[in-house]
């Protein structure tokens, strides 16, 4: 039995069917101690002209990842309707409360939006946002681009990525889009635990879905913002929404073939990184040491690579806690 | 009238006059709700052999700067007494409560240790630490090396630095030490507001004082840790405490000739960096844009360079608040 | 399939079937860090004599609204059993943890009690309270009076209100009760989103339900407390529980015919109110300005009325956030 | 011995000697965990033309009082230089961190600015602000107007006020200015405990000083904002800075002849106000009752007037704590 | 319909089927603001040799109860595989986040683990832990021993306990195990509200389940740790996993025949204990007084025993809040 | 030069010179965000009849120590003026904000009252309280009794104590009073660091000063309350204020001859107590073990006695942090 779901409490101040450039809000009523009849107001822009495919572009799925919001606030401001054939829907900061707080999760309910799909219209604020994307925005889209970076606690090699999918035709469309994005690195992902992800929600609806990891640490640089901006325009050109050919360059394909790629700390302490992102490692190489914090003269524990590859991601803060992901080693492929 | 000061409440479990390697604590009694008779225990190591100069090596003056603690925990563990002629005193994490919390200032009293000198024996925990360095440790030292980086909110080009000093002979000794440290960049600093700094406390006591800024963001890398480790050994060799010649390499000298070097944000918003650390700028170039957060379609404000030079430091987090230092432009000198 | 529900964990120390005046508690076990075997103790009074209808009188559904609690603590203390024919059940502070904290929602679980119905016996503390009213107290009642005001963040013209209902006979009984209450203003409400409300729970059980908004701001005045006290006695007289005729006076009927009545802020800032509660407005009149906070010399945004009417409610605090309800304009009817 | 004081760390981006309208900042460096090189940026406006007296107009001395900020942000935006003969310095939000937080005291250091004078250049953020007013802004001024209201926890009859002063000529100038302000009520104050007040700082420097209390509760209304705006222009006209005669109306003079005017709660509880602001009371009348919160059926304590007069101020929130000022009774004078 | 449940996200680094001594972790992925790819790492030890029954030994179900963790960390360190016939699984701190915080409930989600069974694989962190015990660890066990004490807010006479069960054969096995544990007191419990308890989860699976209360207050003593250590070894011997006979001593059997055993505070205040744990009381005796906190000279309320017995448990902190369990009186049996 | 000090802002509602029983407040104005004109109200009682010595009895110097407050609230309630010759001043909770919060230090300013003497009339709330005792209450007293226990984090053998003093006549009067108090243990203290203590303030004014430690853990028992009550009456009788002879019993005199008595933890971890309070130890005996928290199978550190004696105090909570006082060993004397 499929229960009839309540309508979303979110209302959009933009008309998704109107041509032209619109800047507006998704208004989500949120009653709370400091505003009895308050709302969360999520900025949204729609740029549309005539018929054509729809691209749904999102950043701020996690609130402390910045390449996406920078590229998308900029795009929303500068993309003209006459540049477009079809529709571009831009939500630069999906989990807007998290984005305003500069945190991965929502300060309202500690919700990790990317683990909250399909969401609930009568759930937490984060679940209500997920539900609106699930039931209203994703169905409008043909192509979905969701920007991620490492946030305040992880740092990545800059890559665009797609998932291996059961529908190989859909998978090919996704990897073609990744290639069009043309980041310095590209990743083929096998999601072990896809429950609750926006990625899965989009893919299950048959969409072409591209995601990224573009460095991290809770900052951005001119270089990584440039990757995001160029990649976005490349995708819009690839989809035929914006005219012209993608400006592609070389990319290196990475793979994470097993759980051995991921290394977790088994001690609290001070991290001494022994190699940096992009460096080659061989199985058994020391990637990092963890020094005990309580006194001098103690022997640090050593964290070693479990397989050959490159250091693709790392724990960012100077201190580490037991259980934190300390390092990710990816293998390098030359062709997809 | 000079009041007779109370003794420091801090007691050291190491004997500064004993030869050999000692690992111990500075114990600072600190009564509080969750420990009526508790203490702050600051790790300290002393490596001593015979007569010779004393180097006082410190990290964690600000608790979220990591190259110093990593290099010094490692040195304290590995430096043997037979490698030393004289004495090396190592405090890897001066503001130890801040270091444990991973924050710039102390979680106990929000004290910024580097603005708390000369401290007070009956003041806050942070002031008691400052007082102990002022009256007990600094007088023991000939050479003082204090590690800094940008911490969680700033990022720097990696440099060692000393101050212009009224005593030109002392100043020369300091800059010679900076040169011996041999970081990729070296800085000549004119401190506008030196009140409360550890630097000033050391310099006023006639010590050779070297400080650093070695990137930032609240992390460290293999590369920046390498600079810190090599620079420390270089200094010990330069001082004759460790045998051998410093391993020096090329360094570029930077200068900050005026207050125009420092740019402050006049708006809250999302930072779009337009150039990166080390990039050349000309006066009038856009260094960064600040996008308003509340809605799409708004014009960002532009932050421009006030003089020619290189981008030497920048605001690190992806969001910025009014009043934050957004960028520092330094001029480049070829010779000191 | 209707699942068999677990019994409520709440136990009452009063006997709802006993004649006389009883003061007691609803005890809700609540295990927590600072009391392993603790409870929430919600004050309740029952005044009963013989047969007759039951009035259930509640305040503190939101914890920062005070006319109800003042009138009901006072009534519970002063109403004698010999004044009553039937039963009066008084819970002056339904969401008792919120009432003690002086906040709209519960400090325990941030629950908004008036959006938590029908509740759950194994849910949060707030949901357990809702469940007890839903399954135990509401079934005992014929007449339900629930006091509201604007709380700390809204301010209202003082009115009693009932909802338009599908059962027109029930609706008439409700509006007759509103008229008997005889507040300075009376309101006919069409609830757009009635999910989770106590109002709906009571109405769906066929009860005569009256609610109020009696100013706000997190305070009360002698004048608004007087309205609450007189209105309560008027209702008890109207229901035949207390002897005598209601002391009625003139009331003005208000209506909120559409969503255009509600105005939301689209900017953060400092509120400059341009008209006050009860003032007449015409569509297009400026109701308030919002001044940017960051610097002087900026143009404020203007918030204008969308229809003719009177200012019936307004944002109370001096600062406003994007998404807050800034103003409510109601139309005025002369007859119901 | 008078110690030579350090200069203020605050720098102004406006030139106090330049003609015209300037909007700028007082920049106060404030290093902290979330901004190593951050600043507090206090908005300031200067409107100047030629020679003439200087008025220093301030709001936000307490951060939750809004008539002053509204009137002064508006004045700073609209006052033209050609309207002025002399100089108007406007700081709409003195304790700017408190103003942004909507709290009486600073969220940085919990400083009550109006108890922090003369301040210290090396003290807390709040003390640094006080020091800047003490040593830089007050010396520039002839006339000082500082807006207050009751804030979130008190409510007042709207009045302008000055203090009885030892210099009777200065006192007369102050009361003449109060009369020119022309609020509905005017107050002659004998400050019992003037330590640390901005009032005292200004008066000790021989300035004409006017303050206000314009209702409270952490809000403002069109009516009270109107009083503030008209009063400000009246003062500028009275001082000859703006041309024209003050628009005065009737005012009632109040007095607080003794400590008996102030009533403090000796119990925690729920406040039942028995009279409202402006109501006449006689000694022995019940002003308010305090109901115990823990259970129904308890006898409330009664708070009675100690002298004849009008209710001039009252505790605002619906709950009261032991030690809170519950009510202030002022006596009424017909002439000054 | 039984839904197919998702697998647990928890992975164990130990092999439950391998002989020998293993020390490892239960790793529970937990993404959060300060660690995007973080985990909770719950220590676990498995000591196994050959065939034989499995004992599952747990402490830290509530995080502020210490006899269990002390005895079990010690046992995990000292028990050799050659001492064992069968298997001993030791989780010294079940609700590990609570244990590290020293709180009853989890600092992550405020979950009370002992009210979270059977848990959910996609629920809160606490629910995920419960689910892992429910579906993975409990099925491995024959005998389950779960240590409790009063925690920071309660204090108990030291006893081991089991529940009356519908399956009298199982009940007998449980009480035989309680007798083997041989604490100074033993308790026969009738659980009124068993929903969500680990006890119930284990009993419903047919396991022999023993629990304890071994004093409290958030501490432990040499004496109570001794009871826990000896009791644990006694149980392992009783089960035949460790060779030898239990070292038993005298125990007094207690009973809590009705809800009258539990006394709850109806006032906030300062507790004056009038009798101590283990003291005999008669119905009507004063157990404790509660002094009002606000002023001197007030009459304290008296809390009296409702039945004859001994004081078996009491509120621990010096202050009490309305609704806290103040005292538990148990009756004493001489034989089971 | 002695500066003229400002008067205390505290006012007493009792008349210290009036005969009879008075219950009142010390009112300390305290302006804050949630009460602009608020006060701290410290309960005080004065029982006086005719001439005679004055006893000043205090509890709650630390807010989480309960024997004193219980005994003194009870005494204030029950002591009749006709029982007294002279004057008894009772302040059951000196640091009243800390007492209400149940914490050692003040929740307002984190002030440790017993390290805040002589205080300041313009300092923090805690310093203002100290100043009032220093300048107003202590001068009124002949005999001062200040109750302490271990609070939430320490536990003591129950003893009364006095200090060795330079004035041997005063010292004898103090130890005679300790003997009259007649606790199970008595202590002769040599205060190493007496700065800021109430003890020192009283002793420097020549008063007879007695203090206690009566167990701890943040609770009290019937037994320890009994010691406090009897000891207080004994002292009043000893001073001749209450008629009759002290009810004395045997006491054991303890001594802490050196800093070796105090043992501090050098590791974080789980405490395994190996002996209990009052147990005999010999130098080298293991008093406690500290188990690492992160995993099973680790070797605990052992804490050993440095001298022969009895365990006189211990760390109370189950977890310990580096720097916490873990144990105090006292030597036992048979005669004073």
UniProtKB/TrEMBL annotation, chains A, B, C, D, E, F:
Molecular function in Gene Ontology: hydrolase activity, acting on carbon-nitrogen (but not peptide) bonds, in linear amides; hydrolase activity, acting on ester bonds; metal ion binding
Gene name, Swiss-Prot/TrEMBL: doeB
Cofactor(s) this protein requires: Zn(2+)
Protein name according to UniProt: N-alpha-acetyl diaminobutyric acid deacetylase DoeB
Gene3D superfamilies reported in the protein's UniProt record: Zn peptidases
PANTHER family documented for this protein: BLL3975 PROTEIN (PTHR37326)
Family matches, as SUPFAM superfamilies: Zn-dependent exopeptidases
Domain Succinylglutamate desuccinylase/Aspartoacylase catalytic: 51-238
Keywords: Hydrolase, Metal-binding, Zinc
């Amino acid at each position: 039995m499929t229960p009839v779901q309540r309508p979303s409490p979110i209302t959009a101040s933009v008309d998704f069917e109107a041509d032209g450039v619109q800047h507006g809000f998704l208004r989500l009523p949120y009653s709370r101690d400091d505003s009895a009849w308050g709302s969360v107001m999520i900025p949204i822009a729609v740029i549309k002209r005539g018929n054509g495919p729809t691209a749904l572009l999102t950043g701020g799925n996690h609130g402390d990842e910045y390449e996406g919001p920078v590229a998308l606030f900029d795009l929303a401001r500068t993309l003209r309707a006459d540049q477009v054939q079809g529709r571009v829907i831009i939500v630069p900061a999906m989990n807007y409360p998290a984005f305003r707080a500069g945190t991965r999760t929502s300060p309202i309910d500690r919700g990790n939006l990317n683990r909250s799909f399909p969401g609930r219209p009568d759930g937490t604020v984060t679940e209500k946002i997920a539900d609106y994307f699930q039931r209203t925005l994703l169905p409008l889209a043909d192509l979905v681009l969701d920007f991620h970076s490492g946030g305040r606690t992880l740092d990545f090699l800059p890559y665009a990525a797609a998932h291996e999918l059961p529908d190989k035709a859909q998978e090919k469309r996704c990897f073609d889009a990744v290639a069009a994005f043309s980041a310095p690195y590209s990743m083929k992902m096998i999601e072990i635990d896809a429950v609750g992800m926006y990625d899965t929600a989009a893919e299950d609806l048959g969409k072409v879905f591209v995601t990224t990891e573009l460095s991290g640490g809770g900052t951005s640089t001119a270089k990584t913002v440039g990757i995001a901006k160029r990649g976005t325009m490349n995708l819009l050109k690839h989809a035929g929404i914006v005219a012209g050919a993608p400006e592609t360059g070389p990319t290196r394909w990475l793979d994470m073939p097993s759980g051995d790629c991921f290394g977790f700390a088994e001690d609290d302490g001070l991290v001494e990184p022994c190699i940096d992102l992009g460096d080659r490692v061989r199985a058994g190489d020391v990637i990092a040491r963890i020094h005990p914090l309580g006194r001098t003269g103690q022997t640090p524990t050593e964290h070693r690579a479990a397989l050959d590859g490159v250091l693709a991601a790392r724990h960012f803060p100077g201190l580490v806690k037991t259980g934190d992901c300390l390092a990710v080693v990816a293998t390098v492929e030359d062709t997809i």
